[in-house]
């Protein structure tokens, strides 16, 4: 019976799907869950994906288990909404990704040799994906790069696509020159133009910074996450130093906090 499954601690995936169906039941479900649609749930899906990445970054494996569950629930939620609308169901989702993985790995599931480098496999993967895009009438070089990606991540993906057809700087030094140029244009916009122009120039600078990361084989999202973590860690040390004197940041000033920042920085390097 469904109730038995819902309360079965070993029910696994069937249990989770039964819970989702119960939450969305129009007569007996949760009003909040019933009201949701793809658009309202999407921000939570993105948030959960980042929480998975955060748990991995911090090496918190029990948290990772929980966060993967939260992310899995997002997939189940979207699939249930689709099922309610008569679009597709969870099995369609699972079978679709299974078919895709089999098609994209002929060296594992087909007749192709596994005796190839990771780089060759990556090129083969891109060839298969290009064929998939062509089948969807996505013939433009940039077609299929999801608009909903985080902007920094999407910038790198757009640049990678353009680079495949030769639209790319030959090396990182040219990108550094472009960064200098864009920084000057940003300063000029800030001095003489309005907020829209400043935002545009700032975006151009960020786009080129993403390009530099790609040329230097750095993941800009990961790099910025690490920078955020470092800033948080050091600012918390500033707060701790001030607390030793019975003070808070509100009681301090920039000169004092800047000196304490250097102290925190020195501690990490000691």
TrEMBL record:
<feature type="domain" description="NTP pyrophosphohydrolase MazG-like">
    <location>
        <begin position="175"/>
        <end position="235"/>
    </location>
</feature>
<comment type="similarity">
    <text>Belongs to the nucleoside triphosphate pyrophosphohydrolase family.</text>
</comment>
<dbReference type="GO" id="GO:0006950">
    <property type="term" value="P:response to stress"/>
</dbReference>
<protein>
    <recommendedName>
        <fullName>Nucleoside triphosphate pyrophosphohydrolase</fullName>
        <ecNumber>3.6.1.8</ecNumber>
    </recommendedName>
</protein>
<keyword id="KW-0378">Hydrolase</keyword>
<dbReference type="GO" id="GO:0046076">
    <property type="term" value="P:dTTP catabolic process"/>
</dbReference>
<dbReference type="InterPro" id="IPR004518">
    <property type="entry name" value="MazG-like_dom"/>
</dbReference>
<feature type="domain" description="NTP pyrophosphohydrolase MazG-like">
    <location>
        <begin position="37"/>
        <end position="109"/>
    </location>
</feature>
<dbReference type="GO" id="GO:0046081">
    <property type="term" value="P:dUTP catabolic process"/>
</dbReference>
<dbReference type="GO" id="GO:0046061">
    <property type="term" value="P:dATP catabolic process"/>
</dbReference>
<dbReference type="GO" id="GO:0046052">
    <property type="term" value="P:UTP catabolic process"/>
</dbReference>
<dbReference type="GO" id="GO:0047693">
    <property type="term" value="F:ATP diphosphatase activity"/>
</dbReference>
<dbReference type="Pfam" id="PF03819">
    <property type="entry name" value="MazG"/>
</dbReference>
<dbReference type="InterPro" id="IPR011551">
    <property type="entry name" value="NTP_PyrPHydrolase_MazG"/>
</dbReference>
<dbReference type="GO" id="GO:0006203">
    <property type="term" value="P:dGTP catabolic process"/>
</dbReference>
<dbReference type="InterPro" id="IPR048011">
    <property type="entry name" value="NTP-PPase_MazG-like_C"/>
</dbReference>
<dbReference type="GO" id="GO:0046047">
    <property type="term" value="P:TTP catabolic process"/>
</dbReference>
<dbReference type="InterPro" id="IPR048015">
    <property type="entry name" value="NTP-PPase_MazG-like_N"/>
</dbReference>
